[in-house]
Amino acid sequence: MASFDFTAGQFVSMVAPNQEGKQQTRAYSIASGPHGNNRVEGGFFSNHLCDMKPNDTVSFHGPHGLFTLRNPLRDSIFIATGTGIAPMRGFVEQLFGANPCHEGRDIWLVYGTRLPSEIYYREFFERVAKENPNFHYIMTLSRPDENWSGAKGYVQDRVKEIVEARADKGVGTMHAYICGLNLMVSANRELLAGFGWDKKQVIFERYD
């Protein structure tokens, strides 16, 4: 395939037969910007992909999805937990990559998980934050060990701090992009609604 056109935040549906010959389909977010090995224990498709050898092929269709950056770009909060970080990585690569298009907007990435061992793409996000003062990477853990010196608690706690620090509370001037499990998505939507945010300011995708 010479090229594959997609928008950051979209996903593809992978298709392959299992051992019984039945077709299995799984959706995978594209964790990169549009410029052209997560193995789940017991998961058919993640193991199928990880076990592929050079020149093996797999069928897929897409891209799909409307979880994409809105135009015009505003100051934004990317909110993710667990593997919900995948589309956020695509957003960050698009905005701060080889052809940056962040337009000087302040972008916060608030990423939550349980343990340090579950942090995905940490080096990438830390590098982008070091090189771009308008990109703010906030990693928060719900079950940190004694060696963890970063933020603790849930992502909505950090989001609340970001919004409260703005004179306008982000009403009509920001976007929030949320990806993760339903409870987390709902908690952040309710939080932002409580600040007076319009529904159109909050773009979300949940995967349970």
N- to C-terminal separation? 32 Å
**Count of runs of 4 or more consecutive helical residues:** 5
Spans with pLDDT under 50 lasting ≥5 residues?
none
What is the CATH-assigned architecture of the largest domain? 3-Layer(aba) Sandwich
For the biggest sheet, the summary is: 6 strands, parallel
General description of the model:
The structure is a single chain. The chain has 208 residues and is of the alpha/beta class. The chain has two domains: 11-64, no CATH class; 75-206, Nucleotide-binding domain of ferredoxin-NADP reductase (FNR) module (Rossmann fold, 3-Layer(aba) Sandwich), CATH 3.40.50.80. 25% of the residues lie in helices and 26% in strands. The protein has helices spanning 44-50, 85-96, 122-131, 155-164, 182-194; strands at 11-17, 23-29, 59-64, 75-81, 107-113, 135-141, 151-152, 174-180, 202-206. Strands 7-6-5-4-8-9 form a six-stranded parallel β-sheet, with helices on both faces. Strand 8 (174-180), helix 5 and strand 9 (202-206) form a beta-alpha-beta unit. The model has no long low-confidence stretch (mean pLDDT 83).
